[in-house]
UniProtKB/TrEMBL annotation:
Residues 411-434, 506-575 are annotated as: Disordered. Keywords: Signal. Residues 414-434, 519-534 have a biased composition (Basic and acidic residues). This is S-layer homology domain-containing protein. Residues 30-93, 94-151, 152-214 form the SLH domain. Residues 539-555 have a biased composition (Gly residues). Coiled coil: none annotated. It comes from the Bacteria.
Amino acid sequence: MKNSIPLIGMLLFAFCFMISITSDERSVAAQQQYTDVTPGNAHYESVQYLNELGVYEHKSGNTFAPNHAITRSEVVNILHALYGNSLEKKRVYKTETLADVSPADPHYYSTVWAYEVGIIDGNDGNFNGNNHLKRAQLAKILVQTFDLSGEDDHPFPDVKDDHWAFDYVSILYSNGVTTGHKGSFLPEKEVTNGQFASFVSRTMGVTEVEREEGIAEEKDVMEAAVRFVKGDVWVEKGERAFPAEEGMVIFPGDRIRTENESSANVLFGNGSKLTLGHDTEALLSTIKGEENNIQVDLVEGQLWNSVDTVETEGSYVIDTPSSTMEAKGTLFLVAADPVTGRTTLTVLDGIVSARDNRGDREDESNEERLIGMNERLRGEEPWEREPFDPEQFINDTHSDILAEAIRDVQQAAEEDRRRAEEQQNRYQQDRNRGDLLDALVQTERSDALHQIQQNVVAKNREKNRERELDDLLKERRYELIQEMERKARQSREELNKRKEEMIEQAKRDGIEEEDIDAAVDRIPDIPDASERKPNRPGGSRGSGGGSSGGGGSSGGSDPDPEPPESPHITGSTDGNHFYIQVEGMVSEAVLTLYDASDDSKIENAVLEGNRFIIPIDKKSYYVTQTVDGTESESSNIVVAEKEVKPPEAPIISGSADGDYFYITVERMEDGAELKIYDAKAEAELVADFDGQAYKVKADGTSYYVTQTVDGEESIASNIVVAEKEPDPIESPDKPVITGSVVGDQFVISIEGYDATAELHLHDASDDSTLDATEYIMLFPYEFMP
């Protein structure tokens, strides 16, 4: 169609003009509408309802095909869209049960999800996703998905009581989901897209299940998921056992089992965490969200518990064959002997109540016992509460749990320090004495937790297990021991200074000393177990190498002089030698280097100033200092090994190609092993890699990549988001203009432009845009000077 619009302007000299058009780049998102499902269709309302819930995103185009048979893959895709739990990250499952389902299958996640939660079973080890769904199969899937129950009878003669689907069809019939067709059920008849929509919609109406709540919330189930897996870990759901994977959803009744040298973490929706040691079996019997209740039945093995503060009406309970323990905001370890069932409880923070649960005892063992910070309850009878022994803890605790415990204690200490600062600041504003006293308690607790951590680390170091512990921390992407110790020392210095300031302020503000003492005494004193007396060759400490002999000692001798403070040492290497730097050295002190494995003195060790130079032999060493014949306690221990620096983080960039997104990795080191992570979930993923780029779906997921060289993993790369390329904006056609003189004015006529387009007038000599305000618009694009 030709349009001619006059533009009138005053011409003092000849102009040449050109016109360009800009289009509105905004796009309006609209819900998919299907042209073949109209209001007169029997399935119209059901299709519209499910469409509004977003379950048909796998369909493309505007055709629904209501009379076409639905495939099994389409069925699980719809159900997963409705009820896939929010904690389930997109991951590669390790199930080998469904041989014809692979990660390359577009329905992979929904299929294996449906298998794991018991909605489908497969046939002879295959899923047969392209096969059409039969009505008998539909009955089972609906009953399994919506957890339906009902009568065990129906009127359909074509599904007799010996038919495998008899019970499922009966349940559908008793719930009013199906009435059959002309007196029959037609179990082998294929289900159409429209029929499936109506069946699902009808069942949702019967059970009043809301998609927004999902299966977990509909059953008041707190979200819980596997967070870390090492080795062979199995999750038993009913009669099926599945290899545990990060992101796997855990429901009440699921049983988790670890094998030798294996461990796993379970993270609950309220922030609590459960760690299973090796050869451990536990049943998660209760995970209630609204009531904030968690109960775990420990059959055998060890469970480390990091319990977030439980509300007054909530509970966190561990049941063993012989005991029941309940905690409120605490860090504790429970161990159940696989043979006797005897339970040992170790509490590092908080309070845990414990009682014998066997029910056949009438003695005092049935009484509730409250076990507090830095205490242990022995499993032997009679039960006795005793102080926490860090060396015994090291000997009895599984290594993976030890790594979690050390890290969790540090986090708890830092959280208490943060709370103390908040309460002290609040006191400065409100002058509520309770805030200042609470800040004192939190400060004491933080310092005590740091001391507990220090005691465990020191005893672990004495056993030359620091490298082992660092490796376990590295697996979990936690800080290593030396960094934890550095932060703990710095934190404790700040805590002691803050404590003195608060006590002085409390006294100035008239708070009674007995109230101050009561606040400080609420937290038990934690003895320092990090120092030990090495067995020196040639005699006892302070004897100058001599021996008292068998003749006794002089009764009038002076008391032993105070030994100097133990030094602190750090290690470094230049690739050829290992250097032990000594800090805290007293003037005129004599330094001695020892082999920590057998406490033997290193003779002829090279000492330059305040550092020793030794070979890189992977042995453990400590140092003492002697002043006036009196030797100090031993320093901390260092291991003479090469410093392994992690590689640099790689750099990644991304580009989309249709439904896929390619993540190109740069700055890779030779021989590096790459890992790709979901940046939001911080979970490792499996994706196709061609040597230069990963291929993932363009679904909006954020990714980062690391590289590992010689067992050392780099920090994370930059993050890219796998998004599709935006649809290109189609440029409008170029308009055609003509000009003519009308009197003393020049008229420009335009052809071939979109009526909704915005027109711009340009000076062709310099491409500048003319200001339309210089013209008076009479009618669309008609101006007067």
